[in-house]
Amino acid sequence: MTASETWLEQLHDNGYRITAARRAVVHTVFGATHALTPQEVYDAARKIYRALGLVTVYRTLEKLEELHLIQRVHQPVGCQAFIAAGVGHQHLLLCQGCGQVEFFEGDDLDALTRSIARKTGYQINEHWLQLFGLCMNCRS
Amino acid sequence: MTASETWLEQLHDNGYRITAARRAVVHTVFGATHALTPQEVYDAARKIYRALGLVTVYRTLEKLEELHLIQRVHQPVGCQAFIAAGVGHQHLLLCQGCGQVEFFEGDDLDALTRSIARKTGYQINEHWLQLFGLCMNCRS
DNA sequence: TTCCTTACTGAAAATCATTTTCAAATAGTA
DNA sequence: TACTATTTGAAAATGATTTTCAGTAAGGAA
After folding, report:
1. Statement: the pTM of the whole predicted model exceeds 0.90
2. pLDDT tens, B67-76?
3. Cβ distance of A133 and B139 shorter than 8 Å
4. A104 at the B interface (CB within 8 A)?
């Protein structure tokens, strides 16, 4: 069983059927090291399953997002791309050169959020943190 | 001089002309306490200047963003809304109830970014941090 | 295994946001 | 006041996403 099949399992466990189209989309997105737009998923997945339609890509991405298997990536250039979601509380680190996405964890923003909560009177529920930089390859 | 006129001045200083349409858009966005989509700006600004066209809203927002007077706000529901930009290095705090936007500063992520840089080999150039919660009003 | 129901499919059409085109209007300098 | 380049709004064009629909096929039931 390849790792991407755990996604197919999850789809199945949630009452969705496993089809050739979904296999192709899942395989494509699961293996990606950078965020892919629906069109990019379509282009790549059609190399695996020629008859795939773009509409099915949209519909499959929607389901994968609903199951928290993928997540939308917000970037200055746009917010339509998706990447496999990290497990647990993770944040993104994006390479401005090649677009590669890495996850990291271990941010401790408790002190910060407590301080902001005190200053503003807000009850803070969530945070988005994302770092941008250059990966090892793109630095040189 | 109302405060929003500093934006008009900036437009003028950068070679753009001051028109009734731009006045209406600037006044609308400058005074907003939550992020507005182009359509929302259009609806509100047309109360000031009836003949305004939606296209002009898009074009004016583009210029204001270019001059860093406004910034795009990324939210789970979408990323098309704009708010007056903060001065200096500031981050956003969004109320999940009413949509109100506040700025805060004084995040110290140096320790974090250094640690991530060491672990990943990335050269980190920038970060996006955004907090979500409930404002004083919406808490009660 | 075969059957049957229902979910899924791709194509085409519809929708929605945004951008481009264009001729008329006008800001603001000369 | 006159002039010229910028700006305008409307309409058309574009591009992304969603909906519709009739045919297909997954996968549980028999």
Report:
1. yes
2. 999 999 999 9
3. no
4. yes
